[in-house]
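Why tRNA threonylcarbamoyladenosine biosynthesis protein TsaB? Reviewers of the renewal asked for a concrete example.
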Amino acid sequence: MNELKILAVDTATEACSAALLVGDKLFSRWEEAPRDHTRKILPMVQAVLDESGLSLDQLDAIAFGRGPGSFTGVRIGISVAQGLAFGAGVPLIGISTLAAMAQGVYRQEGAQKVLSAIDARMNEVYFGRYELQAGCMRLVGEEVVRDPAQLVSELTGEGVLAGRWLAVGTGFETYGEQLNGLAEALVISQQVRFPAALDMLPLARAAWLAGEAVPVEQASPVYLRDKVTWKKLPGRE
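Here is what the prediction returned.
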């Protein structure tokens, strides 16, 4: 059986990353580089391809961080992924940035239950709840964008989450005091702040095996907000 080969790219948050799965081998690049994604992402892609000895046309699929995250960052990521996929003649797999962060804290800290939250600005967070199933973090419920107080009220309407939960992402850095009431024992991860393409690969592999890859023209971003604000604070997305 031929080795599965999937490239992953992500620019949805302040981090920029590319990673490549070749059978059981992994190659990756990651850097926290706000507002510099357009310059860094393609060299990262080339670096992991060079390290693996592969070319784009040898890939089976390309995965991308579909959001939520920065509007500009999500658009850069999907545009790059579509351009690469068109050139390589391969399908695309969209991966949630919230799920990727949950997968990252499983990889680095062995977490089984994870709450992921990205600071969405305007006193809101992008949020998802995940639990480990067969080596992959799976969404429980739905991903949402909420005011932190509203989120706590909604999720704890029938009581706080039982047991120990790992909390990951900039949402907990910014609104940790408000979000602390989500679980009986909430531990904020010190290892993962942003998603990484490396952690999208197990999720992309599972999606590929489940037949969830789509043609390039069907790939779409996920913003969660119905209306995207164009009024930005200085230096922020």
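The chain has a mean pLDDT of 93. This is the kind of structural detail the renewal will allow us to pursue systematically.
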